[in-house]
């Protein structure tokens, strides 16, 4: 294992990984966390580095019991994510904080909007023609967690029946459960997607929400590959040959995006995820910057390489007013790495570092070397490259 030298204030970890073809590589992961400072009058928000940076998440963190509650934070110990995950955790608030039967909540990332309908407590009621939804009772706020979306787990005659798309949810009842249930009322889901509205009491719907999708849920588990008896006998604990790296992306599909370009930003907006007492219009918008976090990689043969880390996970906690960003870099085993240095250049120092490197690096008489990531070796937009 190569040595990691961290020259930044950001928690980081260097670890080894294998892909589904048993190719080895090293992974450098770093965590950058911000306070989300919201301006009440218009919801415009800025990000400020947390005085105490949050550590990397070493294992999945659930809201309570792991098998019964959804994932609040997913482990950062992932080898590679093919796309950017954008996760938004928090609470949905009714307009004006006034109790209503139902209301919408939404997030927008770039130009893509994802929304859910939040209802007050309601029930499935047995009728002459089947099960129908009762009118919801008024509510003013609800935690945006998959526990309130359609799904669930039932044990019937020593056998488990689980909603394949959301095992921790509520309000889904298989026909096996309904056959032995004698009552006339059952709790119904309170969160649903506008694209997949509730129809029948036994219908399995995609999980409705903005948080991490369970690793074993339909829509994600398919990428885990074939873990059959042959795999158990011949390859365990190695990955199945048909494993796909898409498995490591934990956001709902609509909240997965191309990796953002270095030095760019990711615009995010939310609606009804803050109370009206804090932001009267209840809309918040901000941009997550792609920081200049990079690695200086020293090889055994004495050559040094620089590589930008890729921003592949954004977790917005609207209740805590925090934003966590995970950056990642995979380094092939064939590079024969001796050490990896994690470095950072603040946005307001980039031009000065460019100029310093241009002045000092080409001069053999200067012993100091100024490392720059590939993103800063390119000229700023609108400026010609140095000839």
Write the layout of secondary structure elements.
Elements: E1 3-6, E2 12-18, E3 24-38, E4 45-49, E5 61-62, E6 71-73, E7 84-89, E8 91-93, E9 102-109, E10 112-119, E11 123-127, E12 130-133, E13 141-143, E14 150-151, E15 153-156, E16 159-162, E17 170-171, H1 175-180, E18 185-187, E19 191-193, H2 229-234, E20 256-257, E21 265-271, E22 283-289, E23 292-299, E24 304-308, E25 310-317, E26 322-332, E27 337-345, H3 350-360, H4 374-377
Parallel strand pairs: 1-27, 7-25, 14-17
Antiparallel strand pairs: 2-3, 3-4, 3-26, 5-6, 7-20, 8-13, 9-10, 9-21, 10-19, 11-12, 11-18, 15-16, 21-22, 23-24, 23-27, 25-26
Structural account:
With 387 residues, this protein is mostly beta strands. It folds into two domains: 3-345, no CATH class; 346-387, no CATH class. Helices cover 7% and strands 38% of the residues. The protein is built from four helices and 27 strands. The strands form eight sheets. Strands 2, 3, 4, 7, 20, 25 and 26 form a seven-stranded mixed sheet that branches. The chain has a five-stranded antiparallel sheet with strand order 19-10-9-21-22, with no helix packed on it. A four-stranded mixed sheet has the order 1-27-23-24. The longest helix has 11 residues, at 350-360. It starts with a strand and ends in a 10-residue tail after the last helix.
């Amino acid at each position: 294992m190569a040595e990691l030298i961290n020259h930044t204030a950001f928690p980081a970890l260097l670890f080894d990984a294998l892909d589904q073809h048993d190719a080895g590589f090293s992974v450098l992961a770093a965590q950058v966390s911000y306070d989300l400072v919201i301006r009440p009058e218009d919801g415009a928000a800025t990000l400020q580095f947390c005085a105490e940076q949050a550590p990397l998440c070493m294992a999945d963190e659930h809201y309570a019991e792991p098998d019964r509650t959804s994932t609040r934070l997913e482990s950062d110990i992932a080898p590679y994510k093919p796309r950017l995950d954008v996760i938004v955790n928090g609470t949905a608030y009714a307009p004006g904080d006034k109790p209503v039967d139902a209301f919408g909540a939404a997030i927008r990332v770039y130009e893509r909007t994802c929304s859910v309908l939040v209802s007050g407590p309601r029930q499935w009621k047995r009728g002459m023609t089947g099960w129908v939804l009762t009118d919801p009772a008024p509510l003013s706020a609800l935690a945006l967690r998959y526990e309130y979306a359609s799904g669930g787990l039932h044990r019937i005659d020593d056998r488990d029946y689980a909603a394949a798309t959301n095992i921790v949810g509520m309000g889904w009842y298989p026909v096996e459960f309904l056959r032995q249930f004698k009552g006339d009322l059952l709790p119904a889901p309170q969160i649903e997607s506008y694209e997949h509205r509730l129809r029948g009491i036994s219908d399995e719907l995609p999980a409705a929400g903005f948080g991490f999708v369970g690793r074993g849920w339909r829509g994600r588990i398919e990428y885990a590959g074939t873990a059959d008896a042959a795999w158990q006998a011949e390859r365990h604990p190695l990955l199945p040959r048909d494993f796909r790296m898409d498995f490591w992306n934990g956001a709902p599909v609509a909240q997965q995006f191309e990796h953002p370009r270095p030095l760019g930003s990711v615009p995010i907006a939310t609606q009804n995820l803050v109370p009206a007492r804090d932001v009267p219009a209840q809309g918040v918008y901000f941009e997550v910057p792609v920081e200049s976090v990079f690695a200086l990689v020293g090889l055994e043969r004495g050559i040094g390489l620089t590589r930008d880390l890729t921003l592949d996970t954004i977790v917005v906690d609207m209740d805590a007013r925090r934003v966590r960003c995970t950056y990642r870099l995979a380094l092939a085993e064939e590079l024969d790495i001796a050490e990896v240095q994690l470095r950072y250049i603040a946005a307001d120092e980039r031009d000065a570092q460019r100029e310093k490197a241009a002045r000092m690096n080409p001069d053999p008489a200067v012993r100091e070397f100024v490392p720059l990531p590939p993103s800063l070796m390119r000229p700023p937009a609108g400026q010609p490259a140095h000839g």
